Amino acid sequence: MKAMKTLIAAVVAVCASSAFAQDLLIQGATVYTATDKGTLSNTDVLIRDGKIHSIGSGLDAGGAVRVDANGRALTPGMFAGLTAIGVEEVSLEETANDAALGLGAPAYQMQWRPEFDVTSAYNARSVLVPVTRVEGMTWTVLTPTTSRAGNFLAGQGAAVTLDGRQDAVLEGSRSLFVNLGGQMNSVSGGSRAAQWMLLEQAVHETRNRITGDKTLMHPLARAAFARYLAGGRVVFYVDRAGDIVKTISFAKRYGIKPVIAGGAEAWVVADQLAEAQVPVIIDALGNLPNSFDQIGARLDNAALLHKAGVKLTFTLFEDGSHNARKVRQVAGNAVAHGMPKEAAIKALTADAADIFGLGATRGRIAVGQVADLVLWSGDPLEVTSFAENVWIAGRAIEMRSRQLELRDRYLQRLKQSLSN
Amino acid sequence: MQPARLRGASRRQAMIPLLGFVLSACAAAPQSQAPAPEATSATAPATPAPYTSTYQAPASPPTLIRGATILTGTGTRIDNGDVLIVDGKIADVGTGLSAPADARVIEANGRWVTPGLIDVHSHLGVYPSPDVTAHSDGNEMVDPVTAQAWAEHAVWPQDPGFQAALEGGITTLQILPGSGNLIGGRGVTLKNVHATTAQGMKFPGAPHGLKMACGENPKRVYGSKGQAPMTRMGNVAGYRQAFADAQAYREEWDKYRRELAEYEKKQKSAAGKKDEDSKPPVPPKRNLQAETLVGAMEGEILVHIHCYRADEMANMIDVAREFGFRISAFHHAVEGYKIADMLARNGICGAEWADWWGFKMEAFDGVMENLALTDMPPGSCAIVHSDSAEGIQRLNQEAAKAMARGVRMGLDIPREHAIKWLTLNPARALGIDALTGSLENGKMADVVIWNGDPFSVYALAEQVFIDGALVFDRAKPPAEPASDFLLGQHQTH
Lengths: 420, 493
Hints:
heterodimer; A: alpha/beta; Urease, subunit C, domain 1; TIM Barrel; eight-stranded mixed beta sheet; 10 helices; 18 strands; 29% helix; globular; B: alpha/beta; 12 helices
C-alpha cells in the first residue's frame, strides 16, 4: 500500500513537470497587466514552470514555445463570477445539481450547517468547465445557494481553477455565504429582521459554546462558524442600501471580513463601503427594481462604486453557472456606462483575486504570478471578440468543448444538406 | 437582475414562452405546411371592437438624419447616408438628401442608424418589475389549454422595463403569455410608447399571436399535480385534442352560417308573404378558447411555439399539418441549428438567444452558433429574441455575439445582414413587416440613432423615434421616470 502511494506520487510529479517542461514565450502582445504598470504595448511575456518569469521586450528564451501575439490583447485569466460550475450540470435536475442544502427542517427547528462545503460536490469533468474556460474564464468561486427547504446561511464555497484537475480549490479563498433580504423571508420566518436575530443567536451560541436541543448549530457547525468570526471572509448577498450598512456594522462588530454580493443599491452607500474597505460583487446589467430591495438599481452602479474607491468585481446572478462567459459582457456594459475600461478588466482579474485572497499569486501579469493568461482576438471586453489562446498555470488549454463538438457536427450536416 | 438565489427560481424558467406564427412569412413560404386558408372561411366571430388599439402617433416635425452609417434592415448598408422622416413615415433613404424648409436636421456623422429593434418574445407587463406575487400574470396554470386568455388583459403599462427597453432601442415588442401551458393564450404586439393603458400601446393592425409550449414546462407543471400532460406524449395529445375540438366548433359555426343563409334565402323568396313556420337558426354558444384556435387555423392569429428540441419542433410541424395552421416561429429553439434546413423549408422563423443554455435538460445542447446556423439556409428567418427584461435592453449585443460566432465559423455575415435578426425578421414573424422593421419609404419611422457601431458592447442608443416622434434622447434624459411605480422612489442620497 505504501509502495503504491509512492508510485502514484511519482507519476503525479512526472506529469506535473512534463506539463511545464517547456517554456512559453508570448511575443508582441498588448499586455493588460492589471497592476500599477497599466497596459504595455508590444511586450513579451515569458512563462517558466507555470509562472510568469519575465516581462519585457525582445525577451529570448532558447527552446521556448513561441506565440506571436501580433499586438493582440493579453490579459490575466478572468474570473467567471460566483457560480456552481462543476456543481450544477443541469439546473432543474435534482440529480444533476448539488448547489444547495435543503434539509427541510421546520422553521422552529432551524438547523444551520455552515460546515456544508459546496466544493466537495465539484466535478472537474463537468461539461461546463471547458465551455467556460475556452471563453477566457480560468477560475470561479463555487458558491452554495439557498434552497427553499434550506437556510439563508447557505454554507461555504471557495475558488477553483478550471484547468480540469479534480483537486481544484485554491488555497486561502474559502468563504462563508450568507443570503440576506426580502428574498430570504420565506426561509427566515417571514422577516429580514429575523435574519439579524438568528445571526446574533449564532454568534452567541458560538462564543458561549451553548449546547442543547434548541440551538441553531451542533458542535461541528459551531466550529465551522467560529472560523469566520476569527477574521474569516463572509460573502453577504444583500441589495438594499440600509441592509448593506447594517451588514458592514455587523461584520465590524464580530471581526468578520465582509464581501457584499448583489449590491444593487451599493452606489447609495459607496463612501461607507470605501471607508470600511468592503469590496462588492455586482451584476452590472441589473438596472430594474426586480424587488423592493433593488429599487435604486442603475446601470452606472459600477462606475459610481469605482469612482468612490470601492474594490469591485462582476458576476451574473441569473443562471450564472452555464452562462459565466457572459461576465465579460457584464464588464463591457459597466464600461459603456462610465467605468474606465482598464479598471473593468482589473475588476475581472486582479480585484477579483484580491477579494478572494488570491492576489499574491493570481490575477495579474507580473513576475512570479501563476501564468493564467488569455490572448484575445480583439478588445477583451467586446462582444465580438473571443479568446484565441488560454493558458492555465502555463499550460495551454485545448480549445474544445462539448458545444464546439455539437457545432461542428451540425455545421457539417447542414453544409451537406444544403449542397444536395 | 433577479438573483436566482432560490433554487430553480430563474425568471426565464418561470416564463416559459410559447408558439408563434407569421402571416406574411407563411404567405411567402412553404409547401409542406398547411395550405393558406381560403379567404372566404372567416367562420369565427371577429375580434370585438372594444379591444382595438387607441394608440395614435403624435405629430412630429419632418426630420432629416444626416451623414450616418445606415443599416436599412433590408440587407443594405449606406455609408454617409441620410434618412428623411415626414409625417411619421420614412420618406426617403439615401445620400445627399435635402431637408424640407421646416425640418429638424440631425447631424449624425460617426453615428449609426438602424430600424427600431423588435423583440418577438417579451413578458414585460405580464411579469413586470417588481417581481412580486401580485404581478405574476403570465401563466394561467389551472388548465393546460387556456387559449381564451389574452396577454393584453394583464399588461401593466407601468412596468419600468418598457422604458429600459426603449433606451436599448426597442420600438416594438410582442408580449406573450408564459409557457406553463400547452396553449397559454394570445400574445399582443405593442408599440413601446408610454401609455396609461395597454390599449394605448397596442400596435394598430397587428395580428394577435398564439402562444404554445413544447417540452418540459407544461409536463412539469401538470405532471407534478398528477394530471395530464405528464409526458411529451401527453403534450402532443393535448394540442391535438384542443385543435380537434376547435375544428368541431368551426363546423358548428359553418353549419349555422349555411342554415342562416338558407333561411334568409327562403325569407326573400317568400316575396312579401310571411313564412310563420320558418324560424331563424340559433347560433352556437360562443367558446372563447375555440375562437382563438380557429383564428390560428384561419391564419388570422400567428402561432408562436416555445420549443427547444429539434425532435419536438418536427413533431409540432406535423401537428400544424394535421390541423392546417402555420407556425410563425419557434421560440428559444435551442436546437434550431440541428434542423435549420427544415425550418427554412417550412418558412418558420427561429427566435433564439445568442448563448443561453443548460438551465434545464432541453436546453443542454445550446451552442453559441445557433443563430448563425439557423440563418444559413436560403429562405431562413433567424431572430434574436430576449424572453428577459435584461436581454431586451441589449438585443444588439446579443446579435453581435451571434454574428461574431458565425464569422469565426467561416460564414459571411455582414452587419447589414445581421441587423435583420432584430428588425425585419421579427417584423415578419409578427405579421407587421409591411408596416415596420426596415427603413423603406412609406414604413413607420421607427428609427434608432446609435452613438457608434451597434454591434459593440460599448454602443448606446442615443435617440429613438417611434412613428417619427423622438421618444428617447440620451442627451436629454427625462427629468422623471416614465413609470408611475418609480416616481418618487429614486433617491439621490
